[in-house]
Structure formats: C-alpha cells, structure tokens
C-alpha cells in the first residue's frame, strides 16, 4: 500500500470575519497499488503522508486549527477528496454532539436567609463535630433571626458521553454522589464548599447521551444556624444588653455531612 496525498494549493483559503478566522485546505488522496474503498481508511491516515489531523495548525498560522473535515470520492476514479476546515480558538475544542464534549456554566446568586450570629467561626471543612455555641456577634431580637444575603454559586456541567459510559460509570456515580460535598479541592473550591445536587440525562443521538450535572458552592459550607430550644420548644433567650433579650446558644447544623470524590463522577473530569 503506497498512499499518495496531494494538496490542491490553488484551493487553499483564509478568511477573517466577525472577529473570527477561518480557512480550508483540499487534498486528493489515492493508493497507487490498491483501491481505497472505505472512507475510514482515509480517516486512519490523518496525521501521516502530509494529511492534517484534528487540532493541527494551519501552515504558518499559529492560531488557526483543523476542526472539521469532509471526505468525498471522485466519481469514476479511485481518488478521494478530503477538505479540512480550519477555525480559530482552542485547537481540540469539541462540538456538543461529540463524545468528550464538556461545557461549564456558573450562576452567581444571592438570597436572604436567617442568621442569629454574625462572623461566627466556621468549623474546618464545614464539619460539625460538637454541639457547642458558634460564637460571633448576636443579631437576633428575642429569638427572631435577622435576614441577610447569603451568596452562592450554582455550577452546571454538561458533557457528552457514550451509552456504555453513562450506564456503567455515570449512572451509579451520580446516585452515590447526590447530597454529598467534595472531599478535596475541586475546580478551585476547597473541601466541603460544594454539594452535588444531581444530574439530568437525555439521549441526543445514536449511542450518545448529554448529561448535565448540578452542583452548588456555598462560602459558608452549607451550614445552618439553629438556636437552642427549651423543653417547650421555645428559643432560650437572655437579656445581654438593653433593650431586648437574645438567643443564648446557637449551633451549626450540617445537612450534608457525607463527602465524595467529585472528580470520579465522570471520566471527563479527571
């Protein structure tokens, strides 16, 4: 098998429009010993015999990369034409319908929540190990909390995987991770800052699934302030300074005490 690949230099193009650069190159390919009858044979030749491969830069242009190709057989001949399309941007960036595609979006949110104390010390990793007063400045009025803004970040990670990866790996990993916090630094977030909420999955093609994971980052480690109550269910209060009494003890409650390795949820995150 002796493959011959010849670029049709007269068809090489380069264009700039709307802030992006594009280009194209046409190659004629044939085997002077045998007949190539399967386009996959052409694909297997990418990166050899002078044929571009995905992510290869355009000749003499460093920010333009091979992104897509088209293969056509010339009628009545044993020759194949391969057209490579080039675009600026990340060299190996994948399309949403391609296996291995990953997209991340962030939603910065704030909402009013009830607080009894300000500047209370947060336990390491948000892990509550004892029922002790959290300290900080008292803010409640006779046991009624003060509403303050709490800032959180909703993370949405969408990826495209094949059916086997979804069924064998992601499905059980998602179930096991729901309601857990990250057990180590994940995407720049310290241990315990993020909680994995779950995912949605939909079939987008033959053997391909789009999975969207939902996580939330909370700078206060998802901790909830709860005041001590007496046998009647009333908040224990005491007059510390005039003119009103305030909650005696306030504790932290951690609704998500279990940790898991977020990087193991998907092979695309490792």
* Gross morphology: elongated
Percent of residues in helices comes to under 10%
Domain count: the total is 2
Order of helices and strands: EEEHEEEEEEEHEEEEEEEE
Class by SSE composition: mainly beta
- Ranges with pLDDT <50 over ≥5 residues? none
Task: Write a concise synopsis of the structure shown.
This protein is mainly beta and 270 residues long. 7% of the residues lie in helices and 47% in strands.
How would you characterize this protein structure?
- The mean pLDDT is 94.
- The protein has helices at residues 39-43, 163-177, and strands spanning 3-7, 13-17, 20-31, 57-58, 61-73, 80-88, 102-115, 117-118, 137-138, 146-162, 180-182, 194-205, 208-218, 224-227, 237-241, 244-247, 250-253, 259-260.
- The protein has 2 domains: 3-88, Alpha-Beta Plaits (2-Layer Sandwich); 102-269, no CATH class.
- It has 270 residues and is mainly beta.
- Helix content is 7%, strand content 47%.
- The chain is built from 2 helices and 18 strands.
- A hairpin with a 2-residue loop joins strand 2 (13-17) and strand 3.
Provide the fold topology.
Elements: E1 3-7, E2 13-17, E3 20-31, H1 39-43, E4 57-58, E5 61-73, E6 80-88, E7 102-115, E8 117-118, E9 137-138, E10 146-162, H2 163-177, E11 180-182, E12 194-205, E13 208-218, E14 224-227, E15 237-241, E16 244-247, E17 250-253, E18 259-260
Parallel strand pairs: 11-18
Antiparallel strand pairs: 1-3, 2-3, 3-6, 4-5, 5-6, 7-10, 8-9, 10-13, 11-12, 12-13, 14-17, 15-16
């Amino acid at each position: 098998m002796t493959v011959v690949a010849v670029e049709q230099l007269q068809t090489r193009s380069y264009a700039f429009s709307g802030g992006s650069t594009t280009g194209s190159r046409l190659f004629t390919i044939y085997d002077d010993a045998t007949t190539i009858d399967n386009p996959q044979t052409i694909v297997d030749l990418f990166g050899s015999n002078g044929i571009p491969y995905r992510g290869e830069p355009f000749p003499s242009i460093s920010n333009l990369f091979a992104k897509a190709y088209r293969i056509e057989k010339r009628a009545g001949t044993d020759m194949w034409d391969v057209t490579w399309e080039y675009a600026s941007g990340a060299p190996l960036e994948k399309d949403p319908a391609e296996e291995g595609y990953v997209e991340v979006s962030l939603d910065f949110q704030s909402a009013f929540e009830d607080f009894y104390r300000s500047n209370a010390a947060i336990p390491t990793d948000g892990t509550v190990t004892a029922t002790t007063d959290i300290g900080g400045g008292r803010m409640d009025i006779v046991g009624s909390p003060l509403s303050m803004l709490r800032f959180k970040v909703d993370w949405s990670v969408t990826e495209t995987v094949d059916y086997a990866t979804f069924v064998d790996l992601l499905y059980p990993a998602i179930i096991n991770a729901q309601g857990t916090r990250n057990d180590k630094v994940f995407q720049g977030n310290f241990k315990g800052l993020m909680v994995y909420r779950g995912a949605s999955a939909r079939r987008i093609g033959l053997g391909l699934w789009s999975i969207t994971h939902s996580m939330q980052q909370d700078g206060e480690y998802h901790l909830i302030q709860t005041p001590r109550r007496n046998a009647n269910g009333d908040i224990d209060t005491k007059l510390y300074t005039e003119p009103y009494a305030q909650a005696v003890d306030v504790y932290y409650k951690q609704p998500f005490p279990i940790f898991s390795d977020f990087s193991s949820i998907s092979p695309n995150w490792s």
